[in-house]
């Protein structure tokens, strides 16, 4: 089941500069630029080390993906880059077939899923050496992801040049994304492999981890927490926390920050990508999610409705 958060009533406006614009300028655009830098480095090196960097930068882009709210044409762009928890497709069979094929690499990789970051992980980590054919396939993947990241950058850059949307609209989009991100973080990225999610209750399996093959799952989790810290933490630029504090929600902001810090601490206690002792992390992330959804929203007079829909 997919939890979809719809904001039905929006925040009141505040007298200072637009929060959404500040987030795009100081968080979203720098993060996508870093992801582009990392994919360019990976394109040159084909190295696992550079892939690890891309995972971190991409997760920060994905965690606070706002381009789809700015321009609906780009709602599905993250799914073109990352297929985790979307569909039941086994891309390994398709990629192995592509490796053996003599057809043009771009023709062979006609599905978005076979040009995803997940496909790159498989190619780089399935064994120790890369053949000429595997590099040809990787080049197609790099080009596709770079194109999608450039689309995201263009949406953000154009937004900053255009007439800004209202503070009410922007604040609703941001809190909706924060809630959605923390839910998926606790349920999909920790709850599923650790056996604490509703779907896999008491049935743990590390192979459900997001980056099981490359052992980047914990790095991805930390990157997502870092993205939240950029939005709700104490920063030199005005962020979502600035708006909330100015609206009188200091207690609630402190609760969110405390839960975020606890999540960092619980993550640091665990061995790399071993979810067997992740109960503390799952509980901390649950508090983090609830601090947004039950505490901060209520104080800021936002009404959210949870809809259960078929899907992941």
From TrEMBL:
Residues 48-277 form the Imelysin-like domain. It is found in: Cell envelope. One of its GO terms (cellular component) is cell envelope. Transmembrane segments: none annotated. Pfam families: Peptidase_M75. Its main location: other. InterPro entries: Imelysin-like, Imelysin_sf. Residues 1-17 form the signal peptide. The keyword Signal applies. Keywords: Signal. It comes from the Bacteria. This is Imelysin. It comes from Malaciobacter halophilus.
């Amino acid at each position: 089941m997919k939890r979809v958060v719809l904001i039905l009533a929006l925040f009141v406006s505040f007298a200072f500069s637009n929060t959404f614009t500040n987030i795009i300028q100081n968080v979203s655009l720098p993060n996508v630029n870093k992801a582009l830098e990392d994919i360019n480095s990976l394109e040159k090196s084909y190295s696992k080390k550079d892939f690890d960097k891309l995972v971190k930068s991409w997760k920060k882009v994905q965690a606070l993906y706002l381009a789809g709210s700015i321009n609906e044409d780009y709602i599905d762009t993250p799914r073109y880059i990352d297929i985790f928890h979307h569909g039941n497709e086994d891309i390994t069979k398709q990629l192995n077939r592509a490796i053996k094929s003599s057809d043009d690499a771009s023709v062979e990789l006609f599905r978005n899923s076979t040009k995803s970051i997940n496909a790159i992980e498989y190619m780089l980590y399935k064994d120790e050496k890369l053949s000429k054919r595997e590099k040809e396939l990787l080049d197609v993947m790099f080009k596709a992801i770079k194109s999608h990241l450039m689309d995201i950058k263009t949406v953000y850059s154009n937004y900053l040049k255009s007439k800004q949307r209202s503070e009410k609209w922007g604040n609703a989009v941001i809190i909706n994304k924060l809630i959605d991100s923390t839910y998926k973080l606790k349920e999909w990225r920790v709850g599923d492999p650790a056996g604490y999610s509703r779907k896999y209750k008491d049935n743990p399996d590390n192979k459900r981890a997001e980056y099981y093959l490359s052992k980047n799952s914990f790095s991805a989790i930390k990157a997502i927490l870092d993205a939240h810290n950029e939005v709700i933490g104490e920063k030199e630029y005005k962020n979502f926390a600035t708006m909330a504090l100015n609206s009188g929600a200091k207690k609630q902001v402190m609760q969110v920050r405390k839960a975020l810090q606890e999540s960092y601490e619980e993550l640091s206690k665990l061995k790399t990508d071993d979810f067997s002792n992740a109960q503390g992390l799952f509980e901390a992330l649950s508090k983090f999610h609830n601090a947004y959804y039950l505490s901060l929203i209520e104080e800021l007079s936002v009404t959210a409705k949870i809809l259960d829909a078929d899907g992941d």
